[in-house]
Design goal:
Largest sheet: 4 strands, antiparallel
Strand order of the largest sheet: 6-5-8-9
Radius of gyration: 26 Å
Helix content: 40-55%
Structural class: alpha+beta
Number of domains: 2
Distance between the termini: 77 Å
Strand content: 5-15%
Number of helices: 20
Order of helices and strands: HHHEEHHHHHHHHHHHHHHHHEEEEHEEE
């Protein structure tokens, strides 16, 4: 017989396996390069160096529609200890925020079950590349992940069982709002829950806090240019569709081409099940004389995560309908699915049904986890390659070819408190150039390029967009760490990240993709030159290799 202690240790180990595995994944893929909104962290550091007395103000001021206190604080702390900003360090420490979120889910689970086994699907689902975009983008790991985690912690301390420590919920509620704007929804939900519990004193104190804090929080608040809304006549339907789609967006892992339609169906199912169980409980309670309706921790936390989704649907209502399925929001997709599982598990009263539901959900989460590792492998690789090549482009030429598309690139002094990592030594670049000078003929491959003034893939770009396709490439071309390099007549070298073909997750899973035979690239033409030689360059066993694919190519729009 296996002892209870041994069984518990084994189950804890199983729970930690996805945590450790995904932690290694984050460690291996974290790159010390700013990405998109990460420039806000450098802006904060520059401001603090110029205005040391304005430290607190710089930490709490708006960024778009949010106050990103913890993101900025993490950047300041990293800079203080290392003397410079390091985005890789921030990403790695940001993984602790995902562990906090997992712990908050575990506390909810333990409020109605004391074993470990039935929590396993949560660990498998949450610690997977489903949430890679949030966790590999340094600023979001300290925003969206923390916002959900702090909100759930706040509600955890409002249980009747925690009545002696209920006031701890207030700092957690504040923390949620200072991580991301959707954290603000925890305040009315927490107050509502206190009122439902008929806790008059706590309701009064929390209500007064809510009024004062919301007044202070929204002092000088303004909607940013990122927020725009549809016409009033369409507003309700657009928000409702966005809310339903994001509620079921976990199915986006299965399909990108049909993701929106599938998300609407899945979201409608999740919401209908939630309404059914809630109505069923209310009906049973109302039919019992002297019994009052109560909302437990699992139910209020599920409601809270749904409120986060509703706030995102409101904020994105003016965008394209399918933008609600943006990969950066999949931390909410995973959280909704986790809370849906905990909610159903909490409502099932028969052991057979519990076991059947657990096994079904366990199989589903294992498949989603494995699929995510397969599906997002290329996306993570391309994302990192874009950061890596721009770590060369900006220090050498003062431009990003894969960054800050709608705005001009910052001046060099903007990066005074950050050092670009070196991935390409000068000797490597020189070796590539020498090899190309010796090549008289280009490789036999199909090369296509076009330059367009407007592209839906780069909305708002200030520059024309160059698209390149390479096919029928020789087998010698490697599948990883290969770059498209442009050489102008002055031998200036610009590096571009290439993308493998999108073969679909089925082909990727079974190894049927054609990565080596087809590559593509797209980037804004910020370079001033007219004619370029184009080559594929890589390093194998520390030996640089380059193959010429085209000569005297112009990227001027027609």
């Amino acid at each position: 017989m296996i002892s209870l202690y041994t069984r518990s240790v084994a189950l804890i180990f199983l729970l930690l396996v996805p945590v450790i595995t995904f932690g290694i994944y984050v460690w291996e893929n974290a790159v010390n390069m700013p990405y998109a909104d990460d420039e806000a962290l450098l802006f904060t550091l520059n401001y603090i160096y110029e205005h040391p007395e304005g430290l607190l103000r710089s930490l709490i001021q708006q960024h778009n529609d949010h106050r990103i206190f913890f993101s900025r604080l993490a950047g300041v702390v990293i800079n203080f200890f290392s003397g410079t900003m390091n985005f890789r360090t921030m990403i790695i420490f940001g993984y602790l925020n995902l562990i906090l979120l997992g712990h908050s889910f575990f506390l909810i689970y333990r409020s109605f079950r004391k074993d470990y086994l039935f929590f396993l699907p949560v660990s498998i689902l949450l610690f997977s590349p489903i949430v890679y975009c949030t966790q590999l983008w340094s600023i979001t790991a300290f925003e969206q992940t923390l916002s959900i985690a702090f909100s759930l912690y706040s509600l955890y301390f409002l249980q009747l069982e925690k009545i002696k420590m209920w006031y701890v919920s207030i700092p957690f509620a504040i923390a949620a709002t200072m991580a991301n704007l959707d954290g603000m929804s925890v305040i009315p939900i927490a107050l509502f829950w206190l009122i439902i519990q008929k806790r008059k004193k706590e309701s009064l104190i929390f209500g007064l806090f809510s009024i004062v804090y919301c007044y202070v929080f929204f002092l000088g608040f303004r909607f940013s240019s990122a927020s725009h809304f549809p016409p009033v006549s369409q507003f309700l339907s657009v928000v409702l569709k966005g809310f339903v789609a994001l509620s079921g967006s976990i199915v986006k892992v299965l399909s990108d081409s049909h993701g929106y339609q599938m998300a609407l169906i899945a979201g409608a199912f999740i919401l209908l099940v939630y309404i059914f169980f809630t109505a069923l409980k209310f009906y049973k309670v109302s039919g019992r004389q002297g019994t009052k309706y109560q909302i437990n921790l699992t139910e209020i936390c599920f409601f809270k995560v749904l409120a986060c989704v509703l706030m995102i649907a409101l904020g994105r209502s003016g965008d394209d309908a399918e933008s609600i399925l943006s990969i950066r929001f999949q931390i909410y997709s995973a959280s909704i699915f986790v809370m849906f599982y905990l909610f159903i598990l909490n409502n099932l009263k028969q052991i057979k049904l519990e076991k059947l539901f657990f096994l079904s959900f366990l199989i589903a989460t294992i498949m989603l986890n494995l699929l995510a590792y397969t599906k997002y492998k290329n996306a993570v690789r391309v994302h990192n390659d874009e950061l890596i090549v721009d770590s060369y482009n900006y220090p050498v030429h003062g431009i990003f070819l894969h960054q800050y598309i709608p705005t001009p690139d910052p001046e060099a002094d903007f990066y005074d408190h950050y050092r670009f990592p070196v991935f390409f030594e000068k000797a490597m670049i020189s070796n590539w150039i020498q090899q190309l000078q010796m090549q008289k003929e280009q490789i036999k491959a199909s090369f296509k390029s076009e330059t367009v003034k407007i592209s839906p893939d780069f909305p708002g770009s200030l520059y024309p967009i160059v698209r390149i396709e390479l096919s029928n490439l020789p087998a010698v071309i490697p599948r990883r760490e290969i770059y498209l390099v442009l050489f102008d007549k002055n031998k200036k070298t610009f590096m571009v990240a290439v993308k493998p073909p999108n073969s679909g997750w089925f082909n990727l899973f079974f190894g049927k993709n054609r990565q080596g035979s087809f590559l593509s690239a797209a980037f804004p033409k910020k370079m001033a030159g007219d004619l370029y030689d184009v080559a594929l360059c890589w390093t194998s066993d520390n030996i640089p290799h380059s193959l010429l694919v085209a000569r005297n190519i112009t990227f001027n729009p027609k």
